[in-house]
Amino acid sequence: MHHVRYLRYVDAVARTGSIRKAAERLNIVSSAVNRRILDLEQEIGTPLFERLPRGVRLTPAGEIFVAYLRRALAEVDRVQSEIEDLQGLRRGVVRIAAIEGLATHFLPDIISNFQRDHPKIVFGIDICGRNEVVKRVKLFEADLGLVFNPPPDADLRHLAEIEERLCAFVPTDHPLADRRSVRLSECVEFPLAIPDRSLGGRVLLDNFLSKRSLKLEPNLETNSYELMRHFVLQSGGVYFQISTGVPQPNGRPGLVAIPLEERGLAVGKLVLCCERSRTLPVAAAMVAEQIQTVLDGIAAESR
Which residues form the HTH lysR-type domain (predicted)? Predict the structure, then answer.
């Protein structure tokens, strides 16, 4: 399957913007990568890359070709996975792009539970903002995406989703810690940490506040939930996050999750998705089923 290898060469160069960096990633000499790309360009009859003083850039023809080859490589991975499944090997890599809020509890549980039965499956996890999750799924850099409130996109297929409300997280000795629900106006009296605009929870807050006179004056704005947690624990403040992905009961050690109760504050959705046209490899499909089961259980508990 030499042609598949050469397609991977082109893909690596397109992702890195450099023949040298692609060769380092592929662990081969750069001259071999360049030679195969030149061969492909001659066969196709047009340049795929524009050679620049520092690196390369896809030509319009190259953009079309790379879109094709990524779909082709995804299909090759799926076929190889099915063949291995017939042989009972269960090998492979499952690539997931996910929001940071799922990194400390939700995803580690998924991985450890799955690998008990399928120890030969390796996971590649990228933690990133919601727009980057969508981008990586669409570019076939991830088999699955886990994202809160993804932007509407025709190229995504939703495999599972659950409704999520924003919660205020406070230390266990906080004045609000015993409340069953809380309003934003009650939170502003304390040091505030809020997610930046790369995170889905911020979208809900901004949409709500755009129609209210209430203004948040945060002490910390960041794309890191871990940083917000530590800030709140040290300052006695408040930060906002969905509860899925946080250990239960009552959040992480030293923290309590209190649902935000505000008329007009929208409920968001935590979505498991893949690229719309993809048929997932066997291992990725099995992981998707496990995630869907977990999400269904969370939804059932919240009813």
Answer: 5-59
In this structure, the answer to whether residues 178 and 95 fall within a common structural domain is no
Range of the domain at 6: 2-66
Are 125 and 96 in contact by the 8 Å Cβ rule? The answer is yes
Task: Say yes or no: 99 and 46 in one domain.
Answer: no
Round to whole Å and give the CA distance between 150 and 165: 15
Among 59, 71, 121, 100, smallest CA distance to 276 is for 71
Tokens of 270: 């935590």
**Per-residue model confidence as pLDDT tens digits over 38-97:** 988 888 899 999 998 888 999 999 999 998 888 888 888 877 777 766 555 566 789 999
- Give the three-class secondary structure for 290: helix
Residue 160 lies in a domain: no
**Which strands sit side by side in the sheet containing 192-195, from one edge to the other?**
220-222, 192-195, 238-242, 166-171, 255-259
Classify residue 197: in a domain, yes or no. yes
| Tokens 């790379």, residue located | 66
Q: Is the preceding peptide bond at 191 cis, omega within 30 degrees of 0? A: no
* 192-212 pLDDT tens trace: 999 888 887 888 888 888 888
146 and 210 both lie in a single domain: no
Specify the number of domains making up the chain: 3
Q: Choose among 238, 155, 152: nearest CA to 200.
A: 152
- Let me know whether 59 and 109 are in one domain: no
3-state SS of 99-161 is CHHHCCCHHHHHHHHHHHHCCCEEEEEEECCHHHHHHHHHCCCCCEEEEECCCCCCCEEEEEE
CATH number, domain with residue 195: 3.40.190.290
Phi and psi angles of residue 145, each rounded to the nearest 5 degrees, phi first: -125, 140
Place of tokens 């409340």: 179
